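WARN no homologs supplied; continuing
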Amino acid sequence: MRIGNWTTVDAANVGGSDYLGAGGYVMRIVRVIDHPEDEYIDVVVDVAEGEHAGIYAGLPESDDWRHSYRRYYSDKAAAFFKQFLEALEISNRGRFSIEAWQQRCNEQEFVGLELGVIFQKVLFTKKSGKNAGKDGWRLNWFASIPAQDIRNNEFEVPADDDQREKGGAENVSTSAGAAGVYNDIDL
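OK structure emitted
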């Protein structure tokens, strides 16, 4: 074992403030990547206010998977994308309007805007890899709401969405994926 100065190393905070949990957060859009062939945008966000503000600040773009969520704009998902746009408009009065934006449809105009996001915890069973068959969890972007509703605590956190193949939660750990935030912790 190598000798090191372990008194200067910060210990991992597993299950603590290193990861967001289900709940409502005021989020700021950091980056947007359009995928027109599949009719969605990857929205990379960071917490804008509260105890977790800036939790993802300083992470390289290669770690965007930790805080990137898909917002589909296909005909099938149009109502949800409109919910996203309305939350942006209400949260950023004077800076963003749906009517003006739809003339250009430039997703890069979302960068720097804030909105309220309600996250739901999703429990699942891993399908492949070294952890196949183990249970994990991720955060799902459940709803887009005005940022002021988060500040006023005027929202409800949905119950966990249990999609596990087996009953117990004894082996819950998580991994990365573009659809949501995954955590590498055992519960």
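The chain has three helices and seven strands.
OK
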